[in-house]
Amino acid sequence: MAIATMRPCGDYRTSYRADQTIFATRLSTAWALAGLLLLCLAPWLLSGYLLSLLIQIGYLGIAALGLNILVGFSGQISVGHAVFYGFGGFSSAYLARHGVPVPLAIVLAGLWTTAVGLIFGLPATRVKGLYLAIATLAAQFILQDFFVRAEWFTGGTHGAVAPPFTLFGTDFSTDTRYFYVVLFFFTLMYLAAANLMRSRDGRALVAVRDHYLSAEMMGVNLTKYRTMAFGISSFYAGIGGALYAHYIGFMSVEGLDILFSIQFLGMIIIGGLGSVMGSLMGTAFMVALPELTGALATALEGGAIDHALHLKDGITYLREMLIGASIILFLIFEPDGLAHRWQQIKAYWKLYPFSY
Amino acid sequence: MSPLFFELLLNGLIIGALYGVVGMCFVLIYKASQVVNFAQGEFLLIGAWICWWLLTSWHMPFLWGFLISLAFMTLFGILVQLVVLRPLIGEPIISVIMVTIGLSIFFQALMKWMFGTFAQPFPPVFALSQVNVLGLHVQSAYLLSTAASLVIMVGFAWLFKYSRIGLAMRATAFSQQIASSLGISVRQMFALAWGISAAVSAVAGVVVGIVNGVSSALSYFGIKVFPAVILGGLDSIFGAVVGGLIIGVLENLAQFLDSQYLNWGNLYEIVPFYVLIVILMIKPYGLFGTHEIERV
Q1: CA B128, CA B140: separation in Å to the nearest integer?
Q2: Suppose B69 and one of A72, A262, B51, B118 were both cysteines; which one would form an S-S bond, judging by CB atoms 3.0 to 4.6 Å apart?
Q3: B3-282 has which CATH code?
Q4: A149 to chain B: which residues are within 8 Å by CB?
């Protein structure tokens, strides 16, 4: 019966169990599995260029999800996510250079970054809101400075080599193979985040965000959950950064600046704060944006607009401006992000043509 | 103590006064409209570039160029408030912070695109020379910047103590409901606060531009202002001045220690942020800020 898999328009769930499932219906489970299967086939279906973009979405998406857990779920803003991402990359490269197998190094790098994140999350026990945002701003500059200084760890300004990913003697350094590595971590991390939101801990995080005084009265330990959110977020950032380092084979301080941190924030705002799927959508948007500007500039090449604006020289600035503009426009016109828009599209078709 | 020490100390006070001015503008916006403005540095940047452009491309006399860029920045500040910040009134603080961050990178990139990334010297406005102050050589431009800072500070003090507009702004900051019940237009006060803040920041931008040349490094002031205002207390205009002076002096003391003894390099840039973390840990509301007391 086709109708049985459709969701009714009201909320007819009768048990907490039904309320807590990751996938609402059997059909959505099937869709998710089909999507995963399709992704497994991606190396055969897509060109090398699109595949590299997918890998990029994969590792950035993991880090963005971490930031979304911190900002979207627990309501603490961080403007220093890029340095935690970078710390993960450097740790993994450092460990792998010292003989730790790369798969293990990636996980360990995540844990190291968690430790660092907890240290910088300590102000969260005392301050909140904008004070915390400013504390993470300081973390951004302090860690960036640390990366330049700590030559034994990061190679200083020259950067550090990250050995390629090998597992049981098989080399995973080509795009086609590395894609599966990223896909594996990606699936694991996204399922873990979706799962977290069903647990007591996840709900406690949301409660802290929505009304921390009430949450504390209900017996939620504010200090514990605020620092925990920092820890989880840094773990995700560390794994994302480590995956990036072993993909590129090289990790450098360059590019870990505040603009990159803001780009992460842009991803989750565009995707939707407090939405697991939204983190992915926002990352895809942010990865596609520079590509689209590039395509646009090529299309306009030689025309009057190109002549007037010197598009070729200005393309990097144009990209930065578009990032800024998309953050502003989304916040004003679509504060709940792409995930919300997607929900509305689904809701529209669910009851079509009798939507109300 | 070597003369270098005193020179750096004086330098710290001069730079600190500028931090204080930018800090005051930041606090003005925060007090009036509860917005943490991450785009404060861009106000300096835009103001300085506009003034530079009027002076070099249009060959205007300095006074006219300066006044036109101030008028432009006032309008610009009001416009930013009207178009971008007003729709977000009542939204969570994360959205408001994010929108100013978005503004910051948007305008920073736009300015780089329009005027390039290289530092451009201001056309010589005043005859620059070395002046002898208490046995130390000081550039006259620095004296000019200190004078400008002092004038701005006194101006702010007068504005908030005696002028009708300033009093209305303080009333709005105290309580929006009470202020509007007394016939003060809260909307106008918000817009005005942004306009004044943008214009005064632009003055600071032009002053720094005359001394060091105009470049995108100006927007870094907007970030350096955070340690200063947090130290002074986020909602205290007096605190912003004190915090700015302390941070300016600390920076230069760190520079002194670094160059003479430690040789770690780059301490000048990074020390304010360590200070920032320490203050947030031990005294989050700063020296003069209001303590928010909550009871569960």
Answers
A1: 6
A2: B51
A3: 1.10.3470
A4: 264, 266
| Per-domain residue ranges of chain B | 3-282
Neighboring chain B residues of A323 at a CB cutoff of 8 Å: 102, 105
Per-residue buried b or exposed e for A17-37, using 16+ beta carbons within 10 Å of the residue's own CB: eeeeeeeeeeeeeeebeeeee
Which residues of chain A from 65 to 94 reach within 8 Å of chain B, CB to CB? 71, 75, 77, 79
Arithmetic mean of pLDDT, B154-170: 87
pLDDT tens, residue by residue, B171-202? 888 888 898 899 888 888 889 999 999 999 99
Terminal alpha carbon distance of chain A? 25
Cβ atoms of B49 and B114 within 8 Å: the answer is yes
Chain B segment 110-149 residues within 8 A of A by beta carbon are 110, 112-113
Can you tell me the distance from the alpha carbon of A247 to that of A243, in angstroms, rounded to the nearest whole number?
6
Q: Are B52 and B122 in contact (CB under 8 A)?
A: yes
User: Could you tell me the two tokens for A328?
Assistant: 């502003």
Q: How far is B195 from chain A (nearest CA, A)?
A: 20
Q: Is the pLDDT of residue A5 over 80?
A: no
Quote the crossing angle between the two packed helices A102-121 and A130-149, to the nearest 10°: 130
For residues A275 and B120, give the distance between their C-alpha atoms in angstroms, rounded to a whole number.
45
Residue of B146, B142, B144 whose CA lies nearest to B154: B146
Candidates B67, B45, B51, B31; CA nearest to B194 is B31
In a domain, A321, yes or no: yes
Mean pLDDT of B14-32: 89
More confident residue, A35 or A175: A35
With CB atoms and an 8 Å threshold, state whether B98 touches A269: yes
pLDDT of residue A60: 92
Angle between helix axes A81-97 and A130-149 (nearest 10 degrees) is 30
Residue A3: per-residue pLDDT? 42
**SS3 for A291?**
helix
- The total number of structural domains that make up chain A: 1
Q: How far is residue B98's CA from residue B93's CA, in Å, rounded to a whole number?
A: 8
Cα(B271)–Cα(B275) distance, integer angstroms = 6
Kindly report the average pLDDT of chain B as a whole number.
85
Question: Which of A131, A258, A269 lies closest to B284 in CB terms?
Answer: A131
Q: Give the three-class secondary structure for A161.
A: strand
Stretch among A30-39, A60-69, A149-158, B36-45 having the lowest mean pLDDT: A149-158
Distance separating alpha carbons of residues B229 and B249, to the nearest angstrom: 15
Cα A132 from Cα A119, distance rounded (Å): 13
| CATH number of the domain encompassing residue A187 | 1.10.3470
Q: Looking at A232-246, A314-328, B38-52, which range is the least confident one?
A: A314-328
Question: If you ran DSSP here, which 8-state letter would residue B97 be given?
Answer: H
Whether ipTM tops 0.90, in short, is no
For residue B170, give both structure tokens: 């303080």
Residues in chain A: 356
Chain B residues in contact with A257 (beta carbon < 8 A): none
Please report whether residue A254 resides in a domain. Answer: yes
Q: Transcribe B80-91 into DSSP letters.
A: HIIIIIGGGTTS
In terms of residue numbers, what domain contains A133?
Answer: 45-350
Q: What is the CA radius of gyration of chain B?
A: 19
Residue A23 lies in a domain: no
Q: Tokens 């320490």 map to which residue?
A: B278
Residue A5, domain member (yes or no): no
Q: Per-residue pLDDT tens for B122-151?
A: 777 666 666 676 666 777 777 888 888 888
Across the interface, of A320, A324, A335, the residue whose CB is closest to B91 is: A335
Mean pLDDT, residues A319-328 taken together: 89
